[in-house]
Amino acid sequence: MKKVITKEENLINLPNIKKELTELYNLDNKIADLVSKRETMYSFVYNVAKESMIELYNSNKCFPGTITVVSGNMNFKFITSDNYKKIDKDRFNELVDLYGSQVVEEQTIISFNNYILLKHKEHISKLIMGSKQLSKEEKANLFVKETFYSVRKGIIKDLLSIVKSKVNAIIEDIQPIFSIKSLQKNT
Question: Per the domain annotation, does 9 fall within a domain?
C-alpha cells in the first residue's frame, strides 16, 4: 500500500538560507528591470538607426549596406541583412500585387515519403507507378511536395528599380532583418 504524503510532510524549513534567498530574489528583480530597460533602449536605437539607413538609401539612391552609427563617443554597426521574415502564400500574393513578381520567389521541394520508401527499400528499383508492391494510396503519397514562399535574395540592393522613388514602404513590406552589432565606446 502506497503512503499518501501530506503537504505538511513535503515542507522543509531552511532558515539558514534566508539571506541568500532574499539576495537571489532582489537580483532576479534587478535583472528583470535591466532586461526591460535594455529592450526599450535597444528598440529605440534600432528604430532610429533603421530610419537613418532608409533616409541614406533614399538620398544616395542606392543601398548603403552596413552603416556605422556614431553618437558622441559611442558607435555601432547597423546591418541590413539580405534575409527576410518568412512569408506565406497570401503575403506572397500581396507582394506580387504591390511590386511585381521580381520581389518574391516560390520554391517547391519534392521529396520522398521516407516511411513508404523504407517500407519498400528492397523494391526501390520497382518503385514505379505500375509497381504491384505499392497500393494506389502509397503511389499517390510516395512524393511529398512542399512549397515555400520568400522575398527574393538580393532584392534589398535593387529596390529603386522597383519603386523609382522612396524605399520606405517597400522596406516595411519586405521586412529585411536588421541588427545592431559592435556597440563600442571610444575613449
Answer: no
Number of domains observed in the structure of the chain:
1
Going by C-alpha positions, the residue among 50, 148, 160, 60 that lies closest to residue 102 is 160
Residue 31 has pLDDT above 60, yes or no: yes
User: Residue 69: which domain range?
Assistant: 14-185
The pTM of this model reads 0.73
* pLDDT (mean) for 55-68: 96
- Closest by CA to 89, choosing from 77, 79, 97, 81, is 97
The beta-strand segments (E) located in 85-152 are 104-112, 143-151
> Does residue 86 lie in a domain region?
yes
Burial, 131: exposed, middle or buried (Cβ in 10 Å; 0-12, 13-18, 19+)?
Answer: middle
**Assigned domain for 37 exists:** yes
Q: What is the mean pLDDT of the chain?
A: 89
Contact assessment for residue 79 and residue 186, using Cβ atoms and an 8 Å cutoff: no
Query: Position 139: which residue type?
Result: K
With pLDDT > 90 as the criterion, what percentage of the chain qualifies?
70
User: Is it the case that residue 6 has pLDDT exceeding 80?
Assistant: no
Q: Domain for residue 2, yes or no?
A: no
- How far CA 142 is from CA of 46, 54, 123, 126, 156, in Å, comes to 47, 48, 13, 13, 38
Instruction: Work out the pLDDT band at 127, boundaries 50, 70, 90.
Output: low
Rounded to 5 degrees, φ, ψ at 62 are -160, 160
